Amino acid sequence: MFVFLVLLEVARKHNFNEPISMNHLIITAHPSENSFSNYLSQSIYEFHKNKAWTVTVRDLYKIEFNPVLSPNDLKMMKLGQTPFDIQREQNYLSAADLITVIYPLWWAGFPAILKGYIDRVLTNGFAFRYTENGPVPLMKGQQVILHTTMGNTVEEYEAKGLIEAFRRSQGDEIFGYCGMEVIDHLFYPQITLADENRRNHFLEMALEAYQPVQTSRLF
Ligand SMILES: Cc1cc2nc3c(=O)[nH]c(=O)nc-3n(C[C@H](O)[C@H](O)[C@H](O)COP(=O)(O)O)c2cc1C
Asked: Residue 20 to residues 11, 108, 174, 202: CA-CA distances in angstroms?
């Protein structure tokens, strides 16, 4: 009887009967409305909205995010003052349990607007802190999924060891460095040639990547 009561209390505390509520932030960085990146962003948004998650999309082109870390930004932050547009994006990040980042691969890296977002928003003091014993991550407990669309094949990049390099440099060394758990990093090859069947297959792949996120929140 006692064990049953304890289990009941644990279930009550963790709302096991309630749908799991997540705060999901989607950051997307493609200039074309009809790009696969924006199609992915919209589909992932709707998929999680239907699960009654709180979902916010920050389309860096639509919000005209300024990607240039300026002398004034550095001066203000040195004085302990965060520029308004950086603070606003940091607030979105702080509120998120899960962060999705969607972008096309441009010259084997991020589009400049996304690189600039990372430079300006994941700041020392917000995302991580330097100490005498090395850097300390400040964004623990948050989860990230990255989606990279590309023109080339995965095989071409794998032959050069670059898929692993992209995972490390674009995922682990940025979001992982800040303490976030990189759940998955998906690549969508030859996306400009993909027909409807292939796009649907990619979309299925994209949504499946969220399975571990949903279950891990139960425990
Ligand atoms: C400036 C620029 C640089 C690009 N560099 C690469 C690259 O390094 N590797 C690659 O596979 N594709 C590259 N591409 C192709 C894009 O990744 C591809 O067009 C994009 O993923 C299409 O995205 P979408 O399906 O979201 O429209 C580049 C495209 C542009 C415009």
From this structure: 13, 37, 28, 26
Atom 12, ligand 1: which residue's CA is nearest?
151
Q: Which CATH superfamily, name and number, covers 20-216?
A: Flavodoxin domain (3.40.50.360)
Mean pLDDT of 178-185: 97
Among candidate residues 204, 176, 202, 209, the one with its CA nearest the CA of residue 24: 209
Helix, strand, or coil (residue 134): strand
Task: Tell me the per-residue pLDDT of 91-139, one tens digit each, with 9 for 90 and over.
Answer: 999 999 999 999 999 999 999 999 999 999 999 999 999 999 999 999 9
Residues 29 and 7: their CA atoms lie apart, in Å, by 45
CA of 110 from ligand 1 middle (Å) equals: 10
d(CA 25, ligand 1 centre) in Å: 23
Q: Which residues line ligand 1 (CB under 6 A)?
A: 30, 32, 35-37, 104-108, 149-152, 191-192
Protein residue with least CA distance to atom 29, ligand 1? 106
Residue of 72, 4, 19, 9 whose CA lies nearest to 214: 19
